[in-house]
Hints:
Blueprint: H1 2-20, H2 26-42, E1 48-52, E2 60-63, H3 81-93, E3 97-100, H4 112-118, H5 120-131, E4 135-138, H6 145-148, H7 152-160, E5 166-167, E6 169-176, E7 179-186, H8 199-216, H9 223-226, H10 232-241, E8 247-251, H11 264-278, H12 281-293, E9 311-313, E10 324-330, E11 333-341, E12 347-356, H13 357-362
Parallel strand pairs: 1-6, 2-3, 3-4, 4-5, 7-8, 8-9
Antiparallel strand pairs: 2-10, 6-7, 10-11, 11-12
Helix pairs in contact: 2-10, 3-5, 11-12
Amino acid sequence: MRRLLQKLFSKPLIRLADKYSSRPDKQRVHDALSELYQKVNNKPGDRGVVIPFQPEKDKFIILSDQHKGARDYSDDFTLSEKNYLAALDYYNQQQYHYINLGDSEELWENGLSSVIKHNRNTFDKERQFLERSAFIKIFGNHDLYWDNDPLAALNLKLIYKTNVKIYEAVVLQTNVNGAPLSIFLTHGHQGDLQSDGNWFSKWFVANVWGPVQSYLRINPNTPSSNDHLKTVHNQIMYDWSSCQHNLLLITGHTHQPVFQSLTHLERLYIDLDKANKANDQAKIEQLRKQISVLNEKGENKFNFPGYQPTYFNTGCCCFDDGDITGIEIADGYMRLIKWEYNLQGASERIILDEARLTDIAAGLTTEVNPPAKIQTVL
């Protein structure tokens, strides 16, 4: 019976989840981001922290949206756990700072004690960064508990064996090409009434979506449905970041990787256009195959006028094939990376896209007025 119901309802339910899980209002989101950014800069240590860094020396890994659960069928993190642990081993050995960008624990669907019980290995790995004073934990909408519950600080100390400060945002500050550059990091749910602490959303997830997802064994975080055209929420994030001065924005929340304001598929179409103009047949064939793998059919054309490389999204650590994605800042570069299982079942780090910070900064306009938006079909 379960298999029949899976076949009948999995795709419709995933489409409904994609359509109704987030209802962001552009002005509300923009106001919330602006207010938070100003608070962190004007009063660091309260809602966020400001960290000066040297691009060629300091290293950061930004991961988000593990949604650690109770290892039942509604636990989206189960298949990704080994990749996550392997990634943390690698970044700890390489002396990275780890910024956990929120929704690390799935506390809409699960009690905290159950999450702690089934995720001791991941908490132990995260604690290794704390021991080097190289761990920052930001809350999201699914683990809002860390910010608003009076027992949160005590439970964090029980988990990590030390005091842990919870933030809403981080601002990394540096100088690139002789000019200041700020990188603003937050979960990305701010201003979205559907997910920003909304009681109905939490009730629906805990009492309706969670049990249905568990019974039908559905994970809606499929790479194929998250690599295409940007979600409305990501577009709103880009619109805000493109209006700022000398600033890059990194969020999570949408589970959709974005690098330099483009999804992976959008980048492939731009590269295909360049290959066509250069008449590079080998490259054209390679890109067409990659686009086909992402399930884009037909001769769709997209127009990208005057976009700025201001917006980045980590993706998530709970894709249904076990992959995790994140953003690295290291060696003067920003990189979109993926950890996946190779043919032998071992975890492997893949660079999906990268660019030097100097090149990214050079692509920013000096004007703070909104530029032309990326034209996509939403």
